[in-house]
Amino acid sequence: MNTMKRVRRIVKLLKIIAPEYIFGALGIIFLVVLFVLGNFFSTQKTKSTVPTEIAPTVFDGLTLQASSTFVYDVKNKREIFSKNGDAQLPLASLTKIMMAVTALSILPKNTVVTINQEFLKSEGDSGLYDNERWKLEDLIDITLLQSSNDGASAIASVAGASGHSVISDNFGRGPFIDAMNNKAKELGLDQTYFLNPTGLDEGVSVSGAYGSARDVSVLFSHAISTYPQIFDVTRSSDHEFSSLSAITHKVKNTNTFVNKIPSLLASKTGYTDLAGGNLVIAFDAGVNRPIVVSVLGSTEQGRFDDVEKLVWSTLEYLGEN
To answer: Which of 34, 198, 212, 290 sees the fewest Cβ atoms within 10 Å?
Structure first.
């Protein structure tokens, strides 16, 4: 029923019940004015509480090379944007985020890790040395920044063998991978599981780990919230480390776009033949307003372009909303 019909009914009713009052006409006018004003302010209140759908107009039209993307508001624990965000895809070295989180949940950060020759067999030269001694938190730092597979293998073997007298790749690796998978379940990462601690492909058709862009965003949110000091180094383009064996290592960040992301908080890259280009970053969109952006299944260069587009679109969305 529209407003005018309601007014007419009120007027008709008042005429029936109070025709003898001298000021009836004035009373009718007064009531009608109150009704109209009440209806107006009620409508305005309703309009002001309905959120405007801005996100589609901001993100629609973006040309992204990634198969899957997810933008996550950490503070409010909500999705801002998703493109196939729940698709299960190879994680590549994004696996090392869970490696770090799991290791720190098992061992104190000042645990001493000794590199031995059996750890130095992963793909790529990490620059680590046999019998070199590291403080766990420093070894995690260099592993995340350089995406060192040797470092990840060493950490997994030592943490997996925690509490036992024997420390070896064969002995500690299995229990550590189990711990990574248990941590994924604990965090509710339904699309995520791990076959190794590095993310390297297990073969031509099997990846070392699988997960979704949504899961990666939630995991990274947990990681930077729980262990922020470990991921601080991933904001740097390069860093110099010294092991307990007094050996200096100067390494470059595998994320070559760290200087192009405003207020970057943390980042991690990943790339294998099966995964393609992966990247997850966290940036501060305001005062204590961390946002996580993850892309999976892009290209080696495209992952950086995709994330940069999503960051600026997110800032535009938050500014308008």
So the answer is: 34
Q: Are residues 266 and 251 in the same domain?
A: yes
- Claim to verify: residue 85 and residue 153 sit in the same structural domain: yes
| Residue 96 to residue 53: CA distance in whole angstroms | 36
What is the per-residue pLDDT for 58?
87
d(CA 297, CA 299): 7
Q: What is the pLDDT of residues 77-110, one digit of tens each?
A: 999 999 999 999 999 999 999 999 999 999 999 9
Geometric angle at alpha carbon 139, from 153 and 110, rounded to 5°: 115
Number of domains within the chain? 2
Domain range enclosing 28 = 3-49
DSSP 204: S
Strand order of the β-sheet with 89-90 is: 89-90, 209-211, 193-194
Do 44 and 155 sit in the same domain of this protein?
no
Rounded CA separation 214/278 (Å):
13
CA atoms within 13 A on the CB side of 173: 15
Alpha-carbon distances, residue 296 vs 103, 285, 286 (angstroms):
24, 22, 26
Nearest Cα neighbor of 198 from 97, 303, 87 is: 97
Distance from C-alpha of 269 to C-alpha of 277, rounded to nearest angstrom:
8
Q: Are residues 59 and 45 both part of a single domain?
A: no
Burial class, 117, CB count within 10 angstroms (exposed 0-12 / middle 13-18 / buried 19+) = exposed
Tens digit of pLDDT for each residue in 266-310?
Answer: 999 999 999 999 999 999 998 889 999 999 999 999 999 999 999
Are residues 89 and 105 located together in one domain of the fold? yes
Residues 66, 84 within the same domain: yes
* CATH code at position 202: 3.40.710.10
